[in-house]
Structures are given as structure tokens and as C-alpha cells.
Amino acid sequence: MNTPAPPSAPAPPRHPGLRDFYENPAVPVASGTPRSLRQARMLARALATPGTSAAPGATTATVLDIGCGDGTAAATAAPLLPGHRIIGVDWSQDALRRARTRLPYAIRGELTGTGLPFRDASVDAVLFSEVVEHLVDPDSALDEIRRVLRPGGHLMLSTPNLAAWYNRGLLLAGVQPVFSEVSLRAIHGRPGREVVGHLRLYTARALREFVAAAGFEVVRLEGAPFHGVPRPLRALDRLACARPSLASILLLHARKT
């Protein structure tokens, strides 16, 4: 006589992983306009410097916006970079669908695995905006960016500042700093309402050392405001930009050595 098997326990609910998280259309993929404009101005100045605009003999620079998200940052930068070709790159198909409504070129690419679909030393500049803080392996990411940049090519990297002026006060009060994440499912212990998936956070000093160790010469470090700062504190946040170590956002310009 066959005894029927006991009913199996229901499978535990599947929670989305990191890749699922970034493919979710509800996850924010755009950064604030003030940061995008400041970064674009830094790149425009760099490309206007004699002898650094593009590869020798070329008049048009190829600029990659790696981790372009919905294309807002690249579209904001485009009017400040006339005559140069801006190509959005992302691995999220949902982000690319949105980016293609704003950019003439938006292609799929990864910083790990198969790598970027570009030849060695074929790119003049890279915009790397609010991406490095999301990466499991930022070292390999900078290696891949360095591979595709020509000698002397520009890296424009932006990332939240762990040591922003308000985070210093929050830590003294025992509060989780802004920009830091302890979960992909909910906010715990810090101000804010959006889960954005940050895995890495940098101070100004750490960012300089990290980029230099990857084979880049750090040219300049500036600060930018954060669009999520409450309105009554925004004037103070703009003032903090004068001292990058206190600013909300770090804007770093480096060149491939």
C-alpha cells in the first residue's frame, strides 16, 4: 500500500536580488540637475583645454555616460558639449528604453563580465555619475573604464559624500548617515524615503586615493548640492560646496595617466 506523500511546505517568498532591484522601473535612476550641470561644465572645460579635446587629429570627442539611467544627466550635459558625441551606456533594459527617448545613442554594456563594447583606448571621456556607490566590484569597473579611455582621456566621476556636513552631525547623534543603506527593501535608521541600493560610500580623501590607485591622475575635486536636502537647508548645502570635503556630492575630474 502506497502512503501518500505529505504535502510539501509552500516555497518561501522570493525577494528580488540586486539585478532585479535595478530593473524595477520604480527605482530612481536620475540625479539632480545641479550636479549634472556642474559635472558637464567641468567636462566642457577639460575638453576645451588645448591638446585634450579628443584623440590627435580628431575634432569630435566620444563621451560615454556609463550608467546613464534614464538619460537625464547626459541630456542635461549635451548643450554644454556641442559637437561632441555622447553615448549612453547601461545594462538595465528598462533604463535604456527611457534613455533612448532623450539620447541619440544608448547601448547596453557592463563594467564586469563581458565588459564595455568598445575597443581599447577608443574613448575620449567618461561620465560616471552616481554609479560607483552601487557597485559590488568598483576596482574592476575603473579598470574597464581605464581600458577604453585613450591616454590622457578624462574621467568625470560623481558620488555621494559619506562625510557630508549633515552626516557628521547625524553620526554624532547615533543616526544612520544619509546615502547609506542597510536593506534593499526598506529604509532603516536614517532620514529619507527612497531605497536606492548604495553599496559603497566615499569621503573626499578616500575617493582621491581610490581613483589614483586605479591609474588615474586626479585633476580636480569639487562639491555639488543634493536635490534631496530639505528646502530650508538648501542654501547651507550650496555653501558647503565651497569645501568639497563637506559637500553633499563629490565631483572628481581625473585623467588616464
Task: Explain the overall architecture.
By secondary structure, the protein is α/β, with parallel strands linked by helices. The protein has one domain (28-160, 198-256): Vaccinia Virus protein VP39 (Rossmann fold), CATH 3.40.50.150. The chain is 28% helix and 19% strand. The protein has 8 helices and 7 strands, in the order H-H-E-H-E-H-E-E-H-E-H-H-E-H-E. The protein has helices at 18-23, 33-48, 72-77, 93-99, 138-148, 165-172, 204-213, 234-240, and strands spanning 62-66, 85-90, 106-108, 123-129, 149-160, 216-224, 249-256. The protein has a 7-stranded mixed beta sheet, with helices on both faces. The longest helix has 16 residues, at 33-48. The chain starts with 17 loop residues before the first helix and ends with a strand. The mean pLDDT is 89. It holds the Pfam family Methyltransf_23. One of its GO terms (biological process) is antibiotic biosynthetic process. GO terms for molecular function: methyltransferase activity. Keywords: Methyltransferase, Transferase. InterPro entries: SAM-dependent_MTases_sf (IPR029063).
